[in-house]
Specification:
It holds the Pfam family NUDIX. The chain has 197 residues and is of the alpha/beta class. The protein folds into two domains: 2-55, no CATH class; 60-186, Alpha-Beta Complex (Nucleoside Triphosphate Pyrophosphohydrolase), CATH 3.90.79. It contains five helices and ten strands; from the N terminus they run ββαβαββββαβββαα. It has helices at 23-31, 46-55, 96-108, 169-173, 178-186; strands spanning 2-3, 14-16, 39-42, 58-69, 74-79, 82-84, 87-89, 114-128, 131-144, 158-164. A four-stranded mixed sheet has the order 7-4-9-8. It has a three-stranded parallel sheet with strand order 1-3-2. Strands 6-5-10 form a three-stranded antiparallel sheet, with no helix packed on it. Strand 5 (74-79) and strand 6 (82-84) form a beta hairpin. The longest helix has 13 residues, at 96-108. It is globular, with a radius of gyration of 17 Å. The two termini are 16 Å apart.
Length: 197
């Protein structure tokens, strides 16, 4: 977390030095079974600091959506043993909104009825061929009015596509990624985004 204020429940976080922080080095350290799971960097200007981090690493842009059907249920995919939202890398020259719709349709086998406003942008780090990269994902509100059968994109590692109602978000919350928690919190589907230790 890059923040301008000390986070709530600061006792579960480890504070990192903002002056000497390097995302590539940090990611390698925490990948080797760090005992801490929550970290924060305290700085005067979080946006400016984030730009500095982005400039030091390869940035991949992606887009996805939180799809709601006419019954008020939300669409999730199951990939890599976790519940996730459909998303994927933007193609060359593709806009974020266009890419978000394409990825949702490809990964879930449905046609989106409406792509609405942007919810939030999230960031997460991972490795590709041994290189640490940062992925920025643009998330959009989407609507689905059809009754078609959901079809997971198996070649992308998706084994299940399922609708969840708002009352069943705990099943998602206990087995998802921090960036997905950010999307759900922004949409007020969950309240506490601090992942369990």
């Amino acid at each position: 977390m890059i923040t301008e204020t000390i986070p709530d429940r600061a006792e579960i976080f480890q504070k990192l030095d903002s002056e000497g922080f390097d995302l590539k080095t940090f990611y390698a350290k925490i990948s080797k079974r760090s005992k801490h799971k929550h970290f924060y960097i305290l700085c005067d200007d979080a946006k400016k600091y984030l730009k500095k981090v982005i400039a030091s690493i390869t940035l991949i842009k992606a887009a996805g959506g939180l799809v709601k059907n006419e019954q008020g249920d939300f669409l999730f995919i199951y990939r890599n043993d976790k519940w996730d939202l459909p998303k994927g890398k933007l193609e060359k020259g593709e806009g974020a909104r266009e890419g978000a719709v394409r990825e949702v349709e490809e990964e879930c086998g449905i046609s989106i009825s409406k792509c609405g406003k942007r919810i939030v942008n999230t960031y997460h780090a991972y490795t590709i061929k041994g290189e640490v990269v940062l992925k920025k994902t643009y998330w959009y509100k989407m609507k689905y009015k059809g009754v078609g059968r959901l079809k997971p994109q198996i070649e992308e590692g998706i084994t299940e596509v399922r609708w969840f109602n708002k009352q069943h978000m705990d099943a998602i919350k206990t087995n998802t990624f921090p960036s997905i928690m950010d999307v759900l919190e922004k949409m007020e589907l969950i309240k506490d985004t601090v992942m369990p230790l």
